[in-house]
């Protein structure tokens, strides 16, 4: 009797379910944020600084840190928590859709192979994002969130402002942990 599910299929299914859950949570939280932001008349502004073509960019914004969190070594702001939840929810939704393609008996082998490749790429991006976040925090930043999408990376750090040396450090971390070119890296800072 032929086995329908091998180790690879179980791994892909597990990753797809995890990505699907992350995407769902992202959608759910984004809808709640949109409703609350509309109700409170939210005003989100960011400013960018100029530079040379190909330079990494950073954006300044502001967020508040609750008083009870300022004494700890790791500052978890609502922005970073929500950003991570949104990222994971978006991934979960994508994985769920890809897993449905893999499990669909009508899907061709080419579609299944493409979906499997995308699932594995999403898992790899998640691992690289986690490594980047850990290494940036190790450089002295209180918090960080990274987004990898194909050949682009966006990083947001908790900082009162980034110096050129700090931007270079973060860029070097990203290029060391991925194959992303410096001109495809965008670095933002959020003030506490």
Description of the molecule:
It is a single chain. With 192 residues, this protein is an alpha/beta fold. 54% of the residues lie in helices and 14% in strands. The protein has helices at 7-40, 78-103, 109-138, 164-177, and strands at residues 47-48, 59-62, 144-149, 152-158, 185-191. A hairpin with a 2-residue loop joins strand 3 (144-149) and strand 4 (152-158). Helix 1 packs across helix 2 (78-103), helix 1 packs across helix 3 (109-138) and helix 3 (109-138) runs antiparallel to helix 4. The longest helix is centred in the first third of the chain and has 34 residues, at 7-40. The model is unreliable at 37-74 (pLDDT under 50).
Label this structure with key terms.
192 residues; alpha/beta; five-stranded mixed beta sheet; 4 helices; elongated; 54% helix
Mean pLDDT: 75
Helicity level, as a percent range?
Answer: 40-55%
Please give the largest β-sheet: 5 strands, mixed
Number of strands: 5
Our estimate of the beta-strand percent is 5-15%
Strand line-up across the major sheet: 1-2-5-4-3
Q: List unreliable stretches of 5+ residues.
A: 37-74
**What separation lies between the terminal Cα atoms?**
61 Å
* Multimeric state: single chain
Structural class: alpha/beta
Number of helical runs?
A: 4
**CA radius of gyration:** 19 Å
Order of helices and strands: HEEHHEEHE
Give a brief outline of the structure:
The chain is α/β, with parallel strands linked by helices and 192 residues long. It has helices spanning 7-40, 78-103, 109-138, 164-177; strands at 47-48, 59-62, 144-149, 152-158, 185-191. A hairpin with a 2-residue loop joins β3 (144-149) and β4.
